[in-house]
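User: Batch of two.

Assistant: Item 1 of 2:
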Amino acid sequence: MPQVAVSVEKGRGPEGRVAVVRLDRGDKINALSPAVMRELRAAALSFEDDTATSVVVLSGNAHVFSAGFDLKDAEGKARGSMGLGERRAALRIGPRMCRAWWEMEQVTITGMNMSWGSLPRLLALMGPARTKQAVILAEDRISSADAREWGLVEKVVPDGQALTEAMAFAERIAALPPIPVAMVKTSVNRLSGALDDLAAHMDGDQFALTNLTEDHAEGVAAFLQRRKPRFRGR
């Protein structure tokens, strides 16, 4: 049996209206394999008919939320030998996971990946110039101060205090009338993301095509070998 990486704890906070979903693979990387992403999507969908929960906090382990996609995962590596049709299907796992979390009625407190349909969301948060900088120069680390200034995050807290602060924020929301809270979140999401599909629908195909390039293979090899990549536009 595969190890379960995602746990769901409900019934916390005021009137038991706060839930915590924790991603923990038991290491300092917490990488996202396809199996883990399916678990995260299932966790989000488990709240679909849950009227008792108002706020969901998505947390990692004590070391990190997630270092990104698991390049060593066997299922993930198998994409390299797939045809385009199979590859497109496999690449829907991440976007489906993100959409499940985006569409939840419950208020969510969490982090965000820079792919899987997030370009429109980043654009809404930071504007075009910062979004291009963050995505094109993705190898650059964004400091917590810059992330706060750009609007990428709402609050910066001392190391080790993220979950405590998130829970305090969640409890404030959970103490409010749950029905209008859910209505406001849904309305704001629908208004702010009304045109998202115009940009996000092509992400999967673009990713599938760029995965076939020599530059993609070079980038993965350089990462695993801990060296600087040499891209040639091929």
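Item 2 of 2:
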Amino acid sequence: MNGRPFFIVGPTATGKSDLAADAAHELGGEILSADAFQIYRGLDVLSAKPDAQTLARVPHHLIGTVPLDAEMNAEKFRRAAGEVLGEIHSRGRFAIVVGGSGLYVKALTHGLAPLPEPDPELRERLNAMSLDELRSRLAQLDPEAAREIDWKNRRRVMRALEICLLAGKPASQVLAGVGDCSRPGSTIPPTGVFVYRDREELYARINERVVRMFEKGVIEEVRAAGRVSGTASQMIGLREIRQLLEGKMSIPQCVAAIQQATRRYAKRQLTWFRRQTNFSSLNLSHFSHDEAVRWILQRAERSFASGDE
């Protein structure tokens, strides 16, 4: 039995979950989620977890397994995923990794670069800086990272700058070590498919999904959420709905803001997977669902068979 998983990756709202569930069902396999937010327990609507029907089709792993107040990172995910993949293999089953969190996927396929540990004194100084000051300093030290990073995400901007200062070289160069397949822990050959859609269709699906989130009660879901960790707080829509609950914006404004933020996230995901992976590409705008499942099955079966040779 081949212990190598098959990857289905791509931006949010493409329909990865349904494709993966149908493919895994046909293969008699199991799914491992590589989603940085669906791994949390709670906020199911906001994080767009697969619905109950999809989850019931085949076993799913690393969905709703981490408390909302817990911090997560790619290394923690890599360790947890490794255990799950080992268990799936021990059962004689195939594994399909599905998700849109690029760094989580990369952690499995190429390992992780050793990053400098946070320095409390430096962290204190960085915390005292404004976001504009952090952005300016990062742009000076690492123009490449500055071009790629989400400028609105203070935590990521600060961490990138922190890596630059501690490592004595651009964070983009340090993180480039992730792409070294010879690194320790790099045991999973990256075989899989990168799914996407034409931009207009993808953006329409994103807009529609956000509207459905509000119809499903996402406002009450956020209102009832307890303490949320720093990493979980980066979930798209959480900040906007909290502002809505504080009376700082209307529902239409909140919907529009989340739609825009999600579209921007999808654009970053597209850029990441096109640059960081060599998976086969599949434009779902040109295939029916059943055709796409058959296309994926052919490649997955070929991949699993080659691993047995």
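The beta strands are 6-9, 30-33, 40-41, 60-61, 66-67, 95-99, 192-196, 280-283.
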